[in-house]
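Issue: ligand-bound run for S-adenosylmethionine - logging full I/O for the record.

Environment: standard queue, default settings, no custom constraints.

Inputs:
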Amino acid sequence: MAVLEQSTIRNNWTREEVLALFNQPFNDLLFNAQVAHRLTLIPNQVQLSTLLSIKTGACPEDCKYCPQSARYDTGLEKEKLLEIEAVIEAAKVAKASGSSRFCMGAAWRSPHDRDIPKVANMIREVKALGLETCMTLGMLSENQSEKLASAGLDYYNHNLDTSKEFYGEVITTRTYQDRLNTLSNVRNSGMKVCAGGIVGMGEEQTDRAGLLIELANLPRHPESVPINMLVKVPGTPMADLDALDPFEFIRTIAVARLMMPQSYVRLSAGREDMNEQMQAMAFMAGANSIFYCEKLLTTPNPAANTDLQLFKRLGITPEAYQVNRDTEDQAAQLRQTIAEAKTHSLFYRAG
Ligand code: SAM
Ligand code: DTB
Ligand code: SF4
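Outputs:
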């Protein structure tokens, strides 16, 4: 997908600069983000990822947002690691619905070494169906990362969740540095990195800026950046928080797009509580990926048909999975940029 040289991509953002991006007039921010999007990515194309919880609930961690922590009574039924057949079945449904990536999540602090052969088998079987693979299993050691990479895992998801400063208000059972170490293990083993966070947890704008700075100042930007709106699940300590201003959510997407111009920014959890106009605005702000199909890990997500109808009304097409999409996409991108330059000449006097 790369149009920009890696050396031209910034990873030295300061908080002052990022707060200035956040606080532009709303329309300026959206315009700038849309321009950035069109310079590096194909407009009107959205990548679809489907989630499956392969091991549900009874998690020893204390993440205050999470319905799967054993510490909160959320009425969730816990489940052991799924058998391979159930995973293949769900992946087939995702593929038939038009998804290009299948993301398998486990409510673990980190995987046990004895689980690695089982999840490696899931990776191989899902890939064999012609889907990209992603997993989110908690913290990974160097050795575990290498094993998942050799099984063919395309992406590993591990979120920083929030800023370094606000982190202690959300999780106490693992440190920010633990998360950074996992991201570095994933990167070093050659997998693509999926890392983002959650907004609407009672943090300040400076924390949202802090999260994006941590992600954008990594040695290499994550290829995929999920921005989740908190799903307020009864029984969790965050169930009764006030909702974040929707415009502030859109601003966060737009600033992510500007800071990480080549990354796929995912409009992630929380879409059940967003109207169509808000989702359209998120795409305008540069989101080019969603979680697709009616369930996230344990909570509901819009039905596939609902999303496809919205895409149709907005002229958005789902991105197809192409094994070697870099060169084709670059050519398509150039054609698009040239076509747009021509359109603009309709509105301006020559010379
Ligand atoms: N247990 C593993 C871990 O925490 O790394 C993997 C699964 S965990 C559920 C993956 C991510 O889902 C979390 O890091 C968090 O960003 C997101 N998440 C969990 N509960 C959420 C909620 N209620 N609202 C929004 N995002 C949530
Ligand atoms: C991510 O950033 N969001 C997804 C995925 N990575 C694993 C999870 C959202 C979970 C929402 C709450 C639930 O369904 O349990
Ligand atoms: Fe466990 Fe992951 Fe939920 Fe934290 S976010 S409680 S680690 S499942």
